[in-house]
Amino acid sequence: MKFYVLFGPPGAGKGTQAGAMVERYNLCHLSTGELLRSEISAGSPLGLQAKALIEAGNLVPDEVVEGMIESKFKSVKEVKGFLLDGFPRTIAQAEALDAMLAKGGEAVTACISLMIPDQLIHERIAHRANIEGRADDARPEVVENRVKTYHDKTEPLIEFYKKAGRYHEIDGVGTIEEVRDRIFTEMDKF
Ligand code: AP5
Ligand code: MG
What string of pLDDT tens digits covers the 190 residues of the chain? Predict the structure, then answer.
């Protein structure tokens, strides 16, 4: 099984590129952001716990997302692997992921990192705010906090995956098709 981490700051294009990636490589797309948003719409206890944190641009507790991912690993069959979008997002989550995979003799195949400058994050999220109506896109101070949270808590994963020899950075600036082709060129190697 392949286990790809799709990494990048808010608005980098993870969700946009995921569809083409899962189709080409027969993967299951797991976005912790999307899973959490469906818990919120369903009004579940987990959704109620996550709502205020997400709407303030903060991370939900590590154990919550780790539990969601592990249960999907157990329940999803018939795929060649998983595309993890927005997970892991802290060093603790990355270590938990390694431990989960090690139980089955597996490991992270590669971290595919989409990189864009901070200015472009704001432009893309402002554009998406008018289309998707996500609560965490609406207020500039929340977007600012998501970017800060990314730099403080998530960016250290770049070193983590570099040390593991698993880090593959893709320039996320360009048209959707240009970025997709760069990703395919890299992933065709695995
Ligand atoms: P999550 O849903 O993961 O949000 P995010 O990481 O902030 O990322 P986005 O979904 O905003 O960006 P994206 O990279 O998918 O960009 P997209 O393709 O849409 O997480 C939301 C929240 O949930 C977190 O803040 C946290 O609270 C919680 N959470 C989630 N995972 C967690 C975890 N592991 N631990 C703890 N908490 C967690 O593109 C953006 C826009 O740009 C779109 O409009 C798109 O059309 C456009 N676009 C994309 N590519 C291009 C291009 N090449 N050219 C022009 N426009 C483009
Ligand atoms: Mg997304």
Answer: 999 999 999 999 999 999 999 999 999 999 999 999 999 999 999 999 999 999 999 999 999 999 999 999 999 988 999 999 999 999 999 999 999 999 999 999 999 999 999 999 999 999 999 999 999 999 999 999 999 999 999 999 999 999 999 999 999 999 999 999 999 999 999 9
**Parent domain of 115:** 2-187
CATH number at residue 9: 3.40.50.300
Catalytic residues: 14, 89, 128, 134, 146
Going from the C-alpha of 104 to that of each of 73, 98, 110, 146, the distances in angstroms are 11, 10, 17, 33
Closest ligand to residue 124's CA: 1
Q: Look at the pTM and tell me if it is higher than 0.90.
A: yes
Q: How far apart are the first and last CA of the chain?
A: 11
Mutational test site, ligand 1, from 6, 7, 36, max ligand atoms within 8 Å of CB: 36
User: How many domains does one find in the chain?
Assistant: 1
Establish whether residue 154 lines the binding site of ligand 1, counting it when its CB lies within 6 angstroms of any ligand atom.
Answer: no
